[in-house]
Amino acid sequence: MTLIMVLIFKTPLRKLVLMVLDRVKRGRGPIVVKTVAGTVLVVLISSVYSMMKIQKRWIDEGAVNPTDQVLMSGHLLQATLMGFCLFLALMIDRLHHYIRELRMRRKSMEAIKKQSRAFEDGKVEESKAMEEEITTLRAKLKHLESDLEMKTKEAHASEANAVALKKQAEGFLLEYDRLHEENQNLRNQLQSLDLTLSRSGSKKNT
Considering Cα of 17, then 22, then 23, then 24, what sign does the dihedral take? Predict the structure, then answer.
């Protein structure tokens, strides 16, 4: 009962008792405990059997023998003690098992909490990094948009210049064709004048 009370309440003594029980359950400890428990159980069964024999004798004889009364009391006390010891041992074993399991679950819960905190911290850092990257990309996008706008304006200006130059070249071509035609007309006129002059010179010579 003292061990059970120690195991129920959280005190420094409980840690010592748990350490002792942990060592008892290691190695050959479980075999020894099972052997002792089996022996106690056999004694309990023997006491109960003896009590049943004495009670049967009382029923058959119809009288109560003082010696049998003493034996009955001894066997009853022995059976009660053995049963109570087995019950307390089982209670101590179960309490120890549940306390260990509770400790393991608490440790696992603490580990899960630490992992979740680390995961949340990682997510926060990752979100901060992503926000910084988004800000950088937005700045780059604005810069690229301004560059694109400038290039578009330059392209429009170049296109306008090209159209103007094309129109100017077309004007030059038209002027060239006109001048070429006038030149050709002047050459034709010169040729006709040369022919006229050569004919008039030949007539004078004759």
Answer: positive
**pLDDT, averaged across the chain:** 84
Q: What is the DSSP string of the chain?
A: -HHHHHHHS--HHHHHHHHHHHHHTSTTHHHHHHHHHHHHHHHHHHHHHHHHHHHHHHHHHSS--HHHHHHHHHHHHHHHHHHHHHHHHHHHHHHHHHHHHHHHHHHHHHHHHHHHHHHHHHHHHHHHHHHHHHHHHHHHHHHHHHHHHHHHHHHHHHHHHHHHHHHHHHHHHHHHHHHHHHHHHHHHHHHHHHHHHHHHHHHHH-
Nearest to 38 by CA among 85, 76, 105, 100: 85
- Using a cut of 0.85, tell me whether the model's pTM lies above it: no
Q: Are 6 and 17 in contact (CB under 8 A)?
A: yes
Sequence ranges of the domains in the chain:
1-142
* pLDDT tens profile 68-108: 788 888 889 988 998 988 888 888 888 888 888 888 888 88
Query: Using CA atoms in the order 114, 116, 119, 124, what is the torsion angle rounded to 10 degrees?
Result: -100
